[in-house]
Write a structure and sequence with these properties.
Layout lengths: L6 H11 L4 E3 L8 H10 L8 E5 L4 H9 L4 E4 L4 H14 L8
Parallel strand pairs: 1-2, 2-3
Helix pairs in contact: 1-2
């Protein structure tokens, strides 16, 4: 697990560490979450890393923007820890399937 306070700080970490999942907020200093998600999905090395948004943003337009940039899931705060863990487990289980890597 590693953390970053901004997209500019996080993107190099994603490229270096190649995590199994990226958990993003929508509103961050500098680049917004959808921009970070797009950068992850546009990079050949990181495009198959699933992105899960966890944010207080809940407008349909913003949610759609996240999915349009390649997000696998979108959760709105507040959320119970167990629910978040379940979503992470489901995404990681889905990404064991080679069909998701195309």
């Amino acid at each position: 697990v590693f953390t970053a306070v901004s997209g500019e700080e996080g993107l190099p970490l994603v490229k270096k560490e190649e995590p199994k999942l990226v958990l993003l907020d929508f509103m961050m200093p500098g680049m917004q979450g959808p921009q970070v998600c797009k950068a992850i999905k546009d990079d050949e090395r990181t495009k198959n890393i699933p992105v899960l948004f966890l944010t207080s943003v809940d407008s349909p337009t913003d949610i759609i923007a996240c999915y349009e940039q390649g997000a696998e899931n979108f959760l709105t705060k507040p959320i119970q820890a167990g629910e978040l863990v379940k979503h992470v487990e489901m995404i990681l289980e889905d990404y064991k399937d080679p069909q998701h890597l195309k």
